Amino acid sequence: MIYRNHNLGELRKNNIGEKVILSGWVATKRDLGGLTFVDLRDREGITQIVFDTDVASQEVVDKAQKLKTESVIRIEGEVRERYSKNVNIPTGEIEVFATSIDILNSCDTLPFQMTDEGLSENIRLKYRYLDLRREQMINNLKKRHRMIMSIRNYMDEKGFLDVDTPLLTKSTPEGARDFLVPSRTNGGQFYALPQSPQLFKQLLMIAGVEKYFQIAKCFRDEDLRADRQPEFTQLDIEMSFVELEDVITEIEGLAKRVFKQVTGQEANYDFPRMEWKDAMDRFGSDKPDTRFGVELKDISEIVANCGFKAFSSTIADGGIVKAIVAPQVADKFSRKILDDYQEYVKRYFGAKGLAYIKLTKGGINSPIAKFLTEEEMKAIIEKVEANEGDVILIVADKVKVVRAALGALRLRIGKELNLYDKNEFKFLWVVHFPMFEYDDEEQRYKAEHHPFTSIMEEDMPRFFEGDMDIRTNTYDLVLNGNEIGGGSIRIHNPQVQEKVFEKLGLTQEQAREKFGFFIDAFKYGAPPHGGLAFGIDRWLMVMLGENSIRDVIPFPKTNKGQCLMTEAPNIVEKEQLDELFIVSTFKEEK
Length: 590
Fold this sequence. Notes:
590 residues, alpha+beta, CATH 2.40.50.140, BirA Bifunctional Protein, domain 2, Gyrase A, domain 2, 3 domains, 5-stranded mixed barrel, 17 helices, 30% helix, globular
């Protein structure tokens, strides 16, 4: 007699007649008089178990009839052909007639049913160990596994070394806030959790590793959104003796391999490239979704001297006026919808307002029409390539505000009007980001990517002359409007690196305090090098079509950075704080 402990999703007709041992969770139970049917589930699928007094003892059948959903059981039985086949599951041609049953663990009353739709995210996160039993979530975990294995296999084939870097390191300015870890043995001093392994991977290039990768945990204390978490997983890659083309070629091969493994689809094309400036001008975003049009059009020249002061005065003050076209919605866009759009761009992007022009069968409908000449109106319509039935939406403001407002409104319209195929995938390289961006709040320049990004050779003379409008050897990989990876060729010249620090407002003393070990390393033979980092979680989220990054992370945090399951973060004992030389100013409510 042959007994096999099968996975529950693998039994087929060729197993008929076999004696098997099966273990799993009770998904459903149905009592039909003298027969009890149980759908037994594990991560690989479902097998129907039949409890029949013609095959099993009354004691076994009685146990089956008392089973609670999600209890854990083990049964022995014989595989038989299923009389009423279920074409919806792979095991639908067979069933197992049980001869014995062991209840390994009975289940209490569940906080929700596994089949419940529309569960609140808080409930799902509080009982994450139950949520992960659901088919969608276990499939996402499987896809994540396949993705990681595909990455490791590809990197190994290409000669990369998997090297760990520290999780307790020095706090350095890298954009977001650091998570700090107090040192018990060095009172008053702190480690930082890494926002990325950036400095270490560059040091590995100086060390002669040449081709490095790591699937690393990273930490950023920043405001959270649907595609961000305080701790996330990053694929980190660095190579020596490479230029931009070398990195892009290598990474495209990886992206295509992973994409096929996860989605089953091919991306058999050279990923198109777009200059950063073109992306911002045309789409208002450095990560444009190119599955649909609705591009931003500059109408500043047309309205520079028009009678509508909101336009002409904005241009006189150094701003711009741009427009997008919502296609064939003139009879659908009510005043309420247009007011909602206006509130959207004002509240979230600081725009002063949103003008519109409806092109209806009866003519032009617009509150600003009276301020524009017939020639100006005609020129606007031609410039934005609008047709009858379209609605032109216009924002006049500072360049940053116009880009952000119309870029976001474009995405909202694309989604609401179903202007793209949700099952389509489009990769895009956005290249040559600026070296510096001006922060209006802090009144100073910051690095657009990071301060270790190399400058394009043709812009180097202007850089040393003091020009801040400098382009870099940078590249972001975008998929369906999401940045899934980004990187650059790095600075390997110590003089250039020091000059960048200077332009970012760091004195030599400040630069040495923050990056002294890094600056010193470059004195000992740093090779040209470059790399890229992928956000594993976001990349997987896009490929699986999920709306939230939390659906592809096993144990994520809420948008407040809380773990509802473990109730972290939590208040610790005063003795622990004393050991770390920390005085708490928090007063717990009574």
